[in-house]
Amino acid sequence: MRALRWHGKHDIRCDNVPDPQIEHPRDAIVKVTSCAICGSDLHLFDGFMPGMKHGDIMGHEFMGEVVEVGAEAKGLKAGDRVVVPFTITCGECEQCRRGNFSVCERTNRNKDAADKMFGHTTAGLFGYTHLTGGYPGGQAEYVRVPHADSTHIKVPDGLTDEQVLFLGDIFPTGWQAAVQCDIQPTDTVAIWGAGPVGQMTIRSAVLLGAKQVVVIDRVPERLEMARAAGAITINFEHESVLERLHDLTGGKGPEKCIDAVGMESHATRSIDSMYDRAKQAIMAETDRPHVLREMIYVCRPAGILSIPGVYGGLIDKIPFGASMNKGLTWRMGQTHVRRWTDDLLKRIADGQIDPSFVITHTVGLEQGPEMYKTFRDKKDGCIKVVLKP
Ligand code: NAD
Ligand code: ZN
Ligand code: ZN
């Protein structure tokens, strides 16, 4: 089959590889009908996440048709149409039973590496480094889904791939980011990043009843898409984020701040941009925490910082004293996808939201490698890429 594979920093290729096989009775093989490139894939493409190996198959946002099931993949049969959550879940461990699916205790087959790096294991993830199990991803014609009886979302035929594909990642990610802000009708919610995750977060914050949603980015078409959902926008290259947020909240600061940017944030004006780039380049720091610093500074005391943006390792120069003394609450994590998807699927079916609005590019798998660059560089108006294997 054909699959997009990682061959090192900035080197993704569409290769011929052997078809996946059932390896365990709980497995299923899915023929991928649609998959997407996620902002998290860019951290691998740009070489900032440790734990990738040459030849790893990329991709963790995908859906398709079940073509083969193991004897214990209960509730699934050939012909079923499924979206596959990016978090692999056993459905049985204590964390899964509590709905904390992204920290499933059993699905990371490289538990020891995660234990060493993070203190505990986290869930196995598709196409996302050997720290999370080294599972081949779904930017491919076929994919093996481990623990398939628990790791799937069945979707009705009446909805298109484009409407439901993002249930596997960015839609529940934006939703969780907003839900964990505990949004009140009097709240200003400020969202850094108007990429695909930011866009889903904006719509979620609006659905959850925020008084005003303010979005920060510098890419004009992304800000335009944010305004289409009713958000107020700030272009951080042209205006002061802190001053504008101050003005928009009567000097109080936003009650809720969401980092939908993560470890590759840009800073245009401040000295910390140079400092972080230099430290990241020599691996003295893995992540650039510019957005975190801004959020801590501007958030209203007793507010909430919600962090869907991905960080991989160490950050530096975080004004923790400000955060502590202002009494801020931090909430973060990889998304507990299945905790949210029954509700979100219903909202799509009811017509409350159609997540396909975010798609700007639909291409074949062969064009995947060049699309990584287009998406990373925000060329050609690119906001979200869907690949059709
Ligand atoms: P993206 O790279 O397309 O979007 C990031 C956006 O942030 C870009 O539009 C960029 O211009 C903007 N940006 C950069 N620096 C900024 C700054 N200082 N202030 C404001 N905006 C800034 O990626 P995406 O797909 O939207 O993903 C966003 C983040 O969410 C990534 O870190 C990704 O890894 C993460 N993510 C997390 C989960 C999860 O489970 N928690 C799931 C999916 C994605
Ligand atoms: Zn993702
Ligand atoms: Zn589990």
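^ zinc ion complex. The longest helix spans residues 337-349. Residues 38, 40, 60-61, 86, 169 surround zinc ion (ligand 2) (CB under 6 Å).
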